[in-house]
Amino acid sequence: MAETKPTATVKSTTSVQPRKSGNSISWIAPLACIILGYILWRYVIGADANFTQPDKAGGFWPDHQGPKGNISRMYEGGIIVPILIGCMLIVITFCIERFLTVTRATGKGNIAEFIRKVQFNLANKDVDKAIAECDRQKGSVGNVMKAGLRKYKEMIANTELDTDQKVLNIQKEVEEATALELPMLEKNLVFLSTIASVATLLGLLGTVVGMIKSFSALGESGGGEAAQKLSQGISEALYNTALGIGTSAIAIIMYNVFTTRIDGITYGIDESGFTLTQSFAANYK
Hints:
The chain is mainly α. It has helices at residues 25-45, 70-73, 80-106, 111-123, 127-137, 140-157, 163-186, 189-220, 223-283, and strands spanning 51-53, 65-67. It has one domain (25-54, 66-283).
């Protein structure tokens, strides 16, 4: 009876290393933005000079009367206004942070053109030039492709595994590199998606609170003064709605912009993995 030889195996090693990057901005920025929102509301919009009857001893929430302009009238929208201003600042902060991150992840040049160059070099069996293209690309697609190419080069020299096993090793390397890149791209987008929903609700809450105060004042007075207080209260309450809807709209638009760009990078990563496995299978049978 013929002896069956065990299938040769090698210990799988990977060149992919986890990124050591903190995310302190995820808790520092929201807290700082809410505090800054209050400061802007209390000391800039609610400055004594912006009112004909300022409450100089008001403390945390002065009862100023007689706003001199539309901006100072926003102050009378209530304590929800600084929270909404903080939400707007959070959206701006994470839009800038995501823009810088996604731009860096996109790398230099067109992704499709980069993949074509790598395919050309692999067709000519010049792996080193393909790796050099990855160094020039300097993006997430280039990082994943470079990790796969290193394993690709290692598998060329390997004489113990068959082609299918080599392709699987390359594919695994690409998957590990992808698993490290994608979280970095999607990180902090949750703030935009959350504020897109919450800001509108906060705006409506501020409006409802303002309307309650307005109708309460209406019940305590009468005649033309009551109508004046009602119209003034409604105007002040609607500032909350405007801030909430405006903040939500910006968050939704930017969230969609970033997810679209991330989808393009993700597609490039998927295509790069497919390119490596198909090239190896075709050139090193």
